[in-house]
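Four and a half LIM domains 1
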Amino acid sequence: MAEKFNCHYCRDALQGKKYVQKDGHHCCLKCFDKFCANTCVECRKPIGADAKEVHYKNRYWHDTCFRCAKCLRSLANETFVAKDNKILCNKCTTREDSPKCKGCFKPIVAGDQNVEYKGTVWHKECFTCSNCKQVIGTGSFFPKGEDFYCVTCHETKFAKHCVKCNKGLVKAPVWWPMKDNPGTTTASTAKNAP
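Predicted structure tokens:
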């Protein structure tokens, strides 16, 4: 006997019909639009399962609604600049509209690769390690106050080191009393310490 294949919301049969799988549940297109679809920030209508969606910083648009705030040119397949929650095309972006790089203080224009962290923007090549000055770009980093460190410099400068051999400890040590010598404590990074 075949298992029932119904919409999670309205319970209509889905055999032979278009449906969408969302969060592990199957739903008909009507229920997807009603309960699951993202809402376009421009027209405030649901972005249906058959529509093309543009996503930028947890905001969603129909591809036809993603337009320059000044000239209304479609930007679905174009580079753009975001300024004060407005999306602008290359032609409408002025130097004043462009966010400034914290590293070189020059404008970041549409098409520039950039890094953003906690509301501050850098050109990708200007986002560098505070210690070795190597470009971090979009790689892993560790923030410390106003400084940023690449993984290597962070481990060298801030990681805990063994007092005896001076090698970096992979993780904080786990301490436990030794069974053979009560009252003595030993450090280890072993996962299965006795």
